[in-house]
Amino acid sequence: GQNIDQPTEMTATEGAIVQINCTYQTSGFNGLFWYQQHAGEAPTFLSYNVLDGLEEKGRFSSFLSRSKGYSYLLLKELQMKDSASYLCARSSGSARQLTFGSGTQLTVLP
Amino acid sequence: DTGVSQDPRHKITKRGQNVTFRCDPISEHNRLYWYRQTLGQGPEFLTYFQNEAQLEKSRLLSNRFSAERPKGSFSTLEIQRTEQGDSAMYLCASSLDRVGAKNIQYFGAGTRLSVL
């Protein structure tokens, strides 16, 4: 995806913690979203950051640094069902259209 | 109405045919977005509506693509004279845009188009 960079693939073990990083261009920025997408399904909203800092929601947390154009998604206590693509998306402009990265395919191994 | 619904889920067509997809957003949402997603990529923004007004359409892929939202509720995306390169997943999303809202976009399951 244009202007959004995230790793293509990651592998982790069940029960572990994994951090997925995302960098983005800061111009016109008005929010950073993370979505989960299982193969053949719709992207599902996970988290939203607009201010610097950490947002925690159960096993998932997301961090934002606006000055650095950097975010990460932290997944704790990994489960097999967490195997999916994780999409970082930047909201911009009055349209608040989302510009997505290409997604990070996470594989959780037993 | 618990989410965004799209119809059909799958569409197979021959090159040169016209196709139309429908999206029903979450009922109280005033914004509706169309995206396209190809294999291994994130969704790519196409166009969006604020109520019935189409406020951005410069990102539609060609003049063969058009979208409508006549009454500010459901929307349709039409592709005329389909080409094999149009094969993709077409996703619809809706959100509530108002002061203080986060404008979170919720996605439908998409319409997968295959052009033979």
Describe the secondary-structure layout.
The complex is a heterodimer of chains A (110) and B (116).
Chain A: E1 4-5, E2 9-13, E3 18-24, E4 29-37, E5 44-49, E6 53-57, E7 60-65, E8 70-75, E9 84-92, E10 97-100, E11 104-109
Parallel strand pairs in A: 2-11
Antiparallel strand pairs in A: 1-3, 3-8, 4-5, 4-9, 6-7, 7-8, 9-10, 9-11
Chain B: E1 5-7, E2 10-13, E3 19-24, E4 31-37, E5 44-50, E6 53-56, E7 65-68, E8 75-79, E9 88-95, E10 106-107, E11 111-115
Parallel strand pairs in B: 2-11
Antiparallel strand pairs in B: 1-3, 3-8, 4-5, 4-9, 5-6, 7-8, 9-10, 9-11
Q: Output the radius of gyration of chain A.
A: 13 Å
- CA-to-CA gap between the ends of chain A? 31 Å
SSE string of chain A, helices as H and strands as E: EEEEEEEEEEE
Report low-confidence residues of chain B grouped into runs of 5 or more: none
Reading the helices and strands of chain B in chain order gives: EEEEEEEEEEE
Core attributes:
heterodimer; A: mainly beta; 11 strands; 0% helix; B: 116 residues; mainly beta; four-stranded antiparallel sheet; 47% strand
Outline of this structure?
The complex is a heterodimer of chains A (110) and B (116). Chain A is 0% helix and 59% strand.
Describe the structure.
The complex is a heterodimer of chains A (110) and B (116). By secondary structure, chain A is an all-beta fold. Chain A has strands spanning 4-5, 9-13, 18-24, 29-37, 44-49, 53-57, 60-65, 70-75, 84-92, 97-100, 104-109. In chain A, a hairpin with a 6-residue loop joins strand 4 and strand 5. Chain B is mostly beta strands. Chain B contains no helices and eleven strands. In chain B, the strands form two sheets. In chain B, strands 2, 4, 5, 6, 9, 10 and 11 form a seven-stranded mixed β-sheet that branches. A four-stranded antiparallel β-sheet of chain B has the order 1-3-8-7, with no helix packed on it. Chain B starts with a strand and ends with a strand. The A-B interface holds A 1, 4, 31, 33, 35, 41-45, 48, 50, 87, 89, 91, 95-103 and B 4, 31, 33, 35, 40-45, 48, 55-56, 59, 91, 93, 95, 97, 102-110.
